[in-house]
Amino acid sequence: MPQFAHVWKNKSNSLFFKLLTSFAIIILLLVSFNFLSYTFFRTNIQNEIINNNQLNLNSAVNNYEKQLVLIKNLGFSLYFNEKTEIMKSTSPKLNYELIAQIRKELQSTLTSPFLYLHNIIYFFKDSSYVIEKEGTSTADIMFSKFYYNESYSLAFWKEQLEKPTSFKTYPNANFIEKGPEKPILKGDFMPILIKNIYNQNFGIIALLNSSKMYEALKPPGSSHFLILDEDQHPIFSSSGDITKTVLPLDQMTDQQGYRQMDQSYVFYQKGSETGYTYIHTIPLERIASQIVKLNWILIGLLVVSVVIGIAASIFFTIKLNHPIARIIESISQINGPTSPRSQIKEFDLISDKLNDLQRMNRDIHDDLTSKNSVLQHYMYMNKLKMIHGGGQQVKIPMRSDKPYQLVLFQMQMKQAFHEQSDMEKNKAMYYIREYIHYHFTRSLEESLTFQIEKDQILSLLFIEPGRSFDLDASLHSLKQVFDLDLAYCLITIATSPLQHESVDLAEAYEQVIARASQRRLANETLIVTEDEPAPNSFALSVAEEQEFTANLTAGNSAAVITIVNRIFIQMHKKRATAFQFTEFAKDIAARVTKLLQSSGIETDQLLGEQPVSEQLSECYTVEQFQLLFEKLLTAASERNKHKKSQSDYFTDFVTEYVESHYGEDISLELMAEKLNITGAYLSTYFKEKNGINFSDYINNYRMDRAKEMLEKTPLKIQEISERVGYHNVNSFIRMFKKVTGIPPGEFRKGDAQKTKSSP
Length: 759
Description:
Largest sheet: 7 strands, antiparallel
CATH topology of the largest domain: Beta-Lactamase
Number of helices: 27
Distance between the termini: 162 Å
Structural class: alpha+beta
């Protein structure tokens, strides 16, 4: 027994045992603290989170309900307004003046961003045509080409018009426009049908931009948002999959509530106006963020823990005073004479480890010293761009007591660099940066140079007060060197005014960026040291635009070249920036491409294999812009001339079709679709070739046939009207009088009198 007591005493007095006991006490405190925190979280926070998220959903539901009621009221106001009533009463007759008014009204309505409406479509079932913001079209083309979705076909909408409902929202879907090469995505829309349950021939289809509406009205913190209609069918899902529900329908019997499923809370609420059910989910893990509410209890526990920790520290410090003194003595002898080995192996091990740590600390210190320059660059870049990061923790002094200037180098690699040089751009930028740094540090030792963008290098020059430094001479020296490589690279050098406060660093950086953007046309290195505001933007006037379009369409290259060169010369006289020249050139190139494409002319390889946009980037003088557009406009004019010299297949097809089908509905869009060209191009082409509009040609031909029938047949005017393609006899009489000057009845009487008076 005495021997056991002696062993226990030695063990309890050992360093290992005392440290183990200390850590056990600390661990016990931490476990107690975590246990109390977790218990409080489970018992008090959950209900508050649920109530808060229910309020968020309630706010979103109210906003959605108000928006849907607003769209419903808007739809019915359009449905029952005077213009719509006239169109319904005159259908299937087309009143183009009224259609234009309706289009203008729709365009005005759709400009409001707060309606979240992409388009509004007037659908006339019997005449099978539609009116929307872009114009009119047949219903088949509208739903099979311009707004195509497999679920929302023409047959679908006809079927919906026959159902006894006045307001119906349909599931969200992707709509595309079928182009000549590949389909064009129109967007994700939620269709809404507004109609009169007693009128199955007309309805208004509103395409609601559900994604924008969701971004504006969604409840905060929702990971998944779902809307069910009054029949509990999904009509919108924020995940894009409307077939996926997050809660069984039989669990949503109340007006609002929530359920816990898997790792999420599911909240639902039914709208009072529409009867729709709105559902959103909150991941369970977000609840942990509410632990902030435990702050007061944590402070109390922390105070208790600190008091206990201090008392325990004092107690164990007194008990361990002698061993710690030996450790300090060992540390003090690390760099001195080698101390005799201790009889305690733990002390020997600590001494060896401390020596290793000290050597490691010296190595780390040397490494950090060598990287101070990199850290300084990082801190200056953060300050230039006003980025607030972890730089506050880096204890590296920034020079803020000396005047400084910023010098920005904007690089523009030419095509020759990519074609003839074997060097990569990033490596070239590195060499240029190193040369600039070497150039400035010869005069200003503390200057810094670093690359801030892929094509920008910035130098920060600290100028000692009273020290003579000629910045202009230094920059011109650099310009002489850079001009040796003008074939490969064009450089703009911009400087800021002399600054005295480091707080103005970001402002100076913005100023030097603005000055670099003021570069004028020149095939040389430019130095910009003063602000020179750019003149107003340049564009074709209305008269110039009309003249440009007419001459380019006619193939008159000399005229269009004169127009463009005149504006280039004006820009040069007014000292327009290189950016303004490029933007104007891009606009003219886009106009040329659009005009050619509208005429059905290919625009590929207009100036060879290199695209026009890439050739524009190689224009550095007015003469280069003029030469490029002389080639471009000449090539475009030649293609227009070649197009006009081809056989007149389009005109022959249209006239033959009209002569064979004049008793049917014929429209410009129908002819353009059969010829696989645009309606605008066919209209311009037909008038140019025949000297008469397409619609006038059809009306004149029909009236000629009607006159023959009035003269040679006993048919009634109603029958003649239908045979020449007019289903409304009043429209036929008005058109006949417009063409001939007299109504058809008087025309027939006059012809009969001539017959009786003849011998």
